[in-house]
């Protein structure tokens, strides 16, 4: 048997560390680490992630953050840019 995925409409936005993605149901996190490299230069590492149904997933700039309400519950997941373009298309409204 073969099946086709039913068309669904989701909300999505590209992830940038400056976006307000962390306000979505408090599922986002951001960690900053400060250190000194071998050359004596101070650096800051920012790591961002998203809490999904299967655990925490690290986010990278350019990833898409997708969300959809299913049975009244918010479902949130990240999507790599190439997969997002191949899977989703814009809709009006």
Total number of domains: 1
Structural class: mainly beta
Mean pLDDT: 79
The count of helical stretches stands at 1
Range of strand content: over 45%
For the secondary structure, the number of strands is 6
Largest sheet: 3 strands, antiparallel
**Fraction in helix:** under 10%
Spans of at least 5 consecutive residues with low confidence: none
Query: What is the H-and-E element order?
Result: EEEEEEH
> Largest beta sheet: what is the strand line-up?
1-5-6
What global shape is seen? elongated
**Cα distance spanning the termini:** 35 Å
Instruction: Please compute the radius of gyration using only Cα atoms.
Output: 17 Å
Key features of this structure:
93 residues; mainly beta; 3-stranded antiparallel sheet; 1 helix; 6 strands; 8% helix; 46% strand; elongated
How would you describe what is shown here?
By secondary structure, the chain is mainly β. It has one domain (11-87). The chain has 1 helix and 6 strands; from the N terminus they run ββββββα. It has one helix spanning 81-87, and strands at 11-14, 28-36, 42-52, 55-59, 64-70, 73-79. A 3-stranded antiparallel sheet has the order 1-5-6. Strands 2-3-4 form a 3-stranded antiparallel sheet, with no helix packed on it. Strand 5 (64-70) and strand 6 (73-79) form a beta hairpin. The longest helix has 7 residues, at 81-87. The model has no long low-confidence stretch (mean pLDDT 79).
């Amino acid at each position: 048997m073969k099946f086709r995925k039913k068309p669904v409409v989701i909300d999505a936005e590209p992830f940038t560390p400056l976006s307000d993605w962390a306000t979505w149901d408090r599922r986002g996190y951001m960690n900053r680490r400060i250190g000194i490299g071998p050359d004596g230069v101070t650096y800051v590492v920012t790591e961002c992630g998203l809490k999904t149904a299967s655990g925490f997933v690290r986010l990278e700039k350019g990833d898409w953050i997708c969300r959809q309400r299913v049975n009244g519950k918010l479902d949130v997941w990240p999507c790599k840019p190439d997969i997002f373009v191949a899977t989703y298309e814009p809709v009006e409204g």
